[in-house]
Amino acid sequence: MKLVVVSAGLSVPSSTRLLADRLAAATALRTPADVRVVELRDLAVDIAHNLTNGFPGRDLADALGAVTEADGLIVVTPVFSASYSGLFKSFFDVLDKDALAGKPVLVAATGGTARHSLVLEHALRPLFAHLRAVVVPTGVYAASEDWGAEGLPERIERAAGELAALMSGLAATRPAVKDPFAVVPFAEQLAALRPSG
């Protein structure tokens, strides 16, 4: 199975990436999966170009393909202005609208204060529900004071267990996804538009 982690952390080192890595490790312990991390910081220019010209660069196309082909996703964003970062949202804006349909997704966020923890319910969960993903029940928010404190490791373990269970259960039933970059001859596209009968 393929587990893709999308991290929108901007700094190095990044608490967002740290949370992403802990969630990925906990999930991989429960279900065999090849883990790939997509660092959005490295794709920022390609994402901006894709938004303005409609074409992904090679690196962005590779990342979008990995997300599309994944059996499960872990998505982690820092909180800016009480919501996900603009870079995080822009990445999912350029993703094909059907790429996440039926795909298990674990949502997580980091922030400076616990007061922003509802970002999981008011921003991330609605975004991925709109994209028709299957969002695991437990989201993970880590404020600055959560690192090294009680509670965070347990939330990570619970969320990872839920994602692993969904990945294992849904992988066998998910239909194959068409290659979003495949070239379809015009005659075939036209034939598909004609009414049958």
TrEMBL record:
Note whether Lipid biosynthesis occurs among the keywords: no
* Domain annotation NADPH-dependent FMN reductase-like: ranges: 1-147
Enzyme class, UniProt record, top EC level: oxidoreductase
Q: What range does the record give for the signal peptide?
A: none
Flavoprotein keyword on record: yes
InterPro entries linked: CE1759_FMN_reduct, Flavoprotein-like_sf, FMN_Rdtase-like_dom, NAD(P)H-dep_FMN_reductase
Top-level division of the source organism's lineage? Bacteria
Sorted alphabetically, which keywords does the UniProt record give? Flavoprotein, FMN, Oxidoreductase
Q: Which SUPFAM superfamilies match?
A: Flavoproteins
- What Enzyme Commission number(s) apply to this enzyme? 1.5.1.-
What one GO molecular function would you report for this record? oxidoreductase activity
Q: Known Pfam families for this protein? A: FMN_red (PF03358)
In Swiss-Prot or TrEMBL terms, this protein is called FMN reductase
Q: Which organism is it from?
A: Streptomyces galilaeus
Lineage start: Bacteria, Bacillati, Actinomycetota, Actinomycetes, Kitasatosporales
